Protein: Helix-turn-helix domain-containing protein
Amino acid sequence: MIARTRHYKGDRFFKGKEDIYVNRVTEAFTICEHMHDFIEVSYVAEGNGYHYIANRIIPVKSGNLFIIPVGTSHVFRPSSPNQSAKLIVYNCLFRYATFEKWKHLFFGGSDIDRVMHNQLNPGIPYLHVFDRHERLQPLITTMHKEFRQKDEGYETILLAILIQLLMIINRLGNEAESADANGRRGRQSDMLGDAVRFIQEHYAENITLKQLAAQAFMSESHFHRSFKRLTGLTFTQYLQKIRIEKCCGLLKTSDQCVNYIANRIGYKDMKFFYALFLKKTGMTPQQYRKYHQSAESSAYPV
Structure:
């Protein structure tokens, strides 16, 4: 990400005797990448987009849930800078000390226990599950309602639902692990992940589908299908998405001229660049800069 990573303290959210904080956020490009000193459970409720987390980009849609431990950098982004593209996420925050009080409920070595201690997988310091049968969303929405209304005993209800939520998440993780045991994971998945990271790091270069397919030891047609299955986008769409996002960041954070920025992100044809930017954002680069440069990052940042 272009902007520096911000660090958030739990004292910003936990008031009085509260140990749990819940909200509902419409994600936006004005929210900065950040890490925090508390644990966060994020549930994608509506729309689709991407989760930038621990140097990875994960396509998300309704039903995706993440447990993000202390110190893991992340931010959600809608699928497009266009304001009509919505991504709505519920966030449940709680202190690590709160988990310590009832961690005995989760046997040592479980996914929940390991992710809380940032020991889940090397290089993947978070837990990601999919709510295939919509078992989690009713719990999250009930927590949000309880937190907002603050009726008598709401703290106890929040804690009870949080424990139930984590228990079901642990089950989902075990189900996914069992399903994958006989599946086709491993080297091909790693190769596709390498291709995604290559695009993120070399987006300004003249990258081709043929080049990435060769690096992944796949035919172009097989790579194309596998890449779209992983990201939800074709190779060209994904490359354009990354380039336009980088361009948006530069327009907001610098006074460099538009032509220079276009060249910097990999576009030499200005007519094509302007048409693509308008299609992706609904604005010209100049309009985008004028609209966003004066805006402050006042939205909820988690």
